[in-house]
Amino acid sequence: MVFDPSVKLNSGNSIPVLGLGVYLTPKDVADSIVQKALDLGYRHVDTATYYKNEQDVADAIGAWLKKNPTVKREEIFYTTKVFDTDHGYEATKKLIATSLEKAKAIDYIDLFLVHSPQSDYEKRHGTWLALQEAVESGKVKNIGVSNYGIKHLKELLAYPDLKIKPAVNQIELHPWLSREELVKYLKDEGIAVEAYSPLARGQRINDPALEEFAKKYGKTNAQILIAWSLAKGFIPLPKTVTVSRLRTNLESLNFKLSDEDIKKLDSLDEYGVTGWDPTVYPLDNEKIGGK
C-alpha cells in the first residue's frame, strides 16, 4: 500500500511530501535500502552527485519498476544535485549529461537542484541557464536550489534571462532550526520547502521535549520530528539505512500534532545548525561571514 501523498510544485508537477534521503549511503547499501523503501510505499528518493551513489539509486529504482510493472515511472520522484565544483554553464551542462547517463535506467530526472550557492554570480548564473535548458530538453522535469538564503534567491530571481523559477529550496530544518524568515520568503514566492536533516542528525533525538510528545502520542521521537516538519508544510527527507526505521518514518504521515504542540516545538528554535550552513554564504560584494 502506498501512503505517500503529493503536493503541487510551481512547475505544475507533483512531488511526494515525504522522501528518503541517501546522503553518503554506501553503494552496496543504496540498492537494497531504496528497493525496500519503494516496497514500503516511498515514492521519493533524494540523492546528489556529491553523495557518490546516483547510479546505484537510479539503478535500484529501475530494477524495482521492472519487478513492479503496475507502478509507472511517473509515480517515482528522483532528485539529484549540482555540487559547487561543477558550477558554471559548461561545467553544469557536462554534469547534467553525466547524471542523465547514470539515470538511464529511469529515463529522466524529476528534480535537479543547485546544491549550494558557494561559488560566484557568473557561475551560479551559468548553472541556472544550463538547468533551464535541461528542462527545455524534457530530460529534467523540475529545477531548484538547496542551501540558498534570501539574498541568493533574490539574486536568482533577478536574472535577466530567468525563464523558470526554482520549484524547491532544500534546507536544513527541524524544531531547533526553523528559519522562519527564510521559510516565509519561500512560501510567499511559491517555492516549495524541502527539509533535510529533519531529525537533526540524531543530535537531539533524546531531547526531553521529544520524549514528552512521543509518550503523549504513542510515537517515536523521530516520528514526532517528521510530523512537525509535515505540519509546517515542509517536505522532509529523513535518511536511514535501517529497514525498521524506513517503516516508522513513513508512518509519520498517519497522525498529526495539535496546534498547541506544534507551537511548543517551535519554541525550541535556537538556530541550531547541525552540519554546514551555506545559506549565509556571501554574495560577491560581501565579506566572508556577511549576512
From TrEMBL:
CDD domains: AKR_AKR1-5-like (cd19071). InterPro entries: AKR, Aldo/ket_reductase_CS, NAD(P)_OxRdtase_dom_sf, NADP_OxRdtase_dom. The keyword Membrane does not apply. Gene3D superfamilies: NADP-dependent oxidoreductase domain (3.20.20.100). Belongs to the aldo/keto reductase family. It comes from Ambrosiozyma monospora. Substrate binds at residue 115. Residues 27-270 form the NADP-dependent oxidoreductase domain. The record marks 81 as: Lowers pKa of active site Tyr. GO terms for molecular function: oxidoreductase activity, acting on the CH-OH group of donors, NAD or NADP as acceptor. It holds the Pfam family Aldo_ket_red. The active site is at residue 51. This is Unnamed protein product. It comes from the Eukaryota. Keywords: Oxidoreductase.
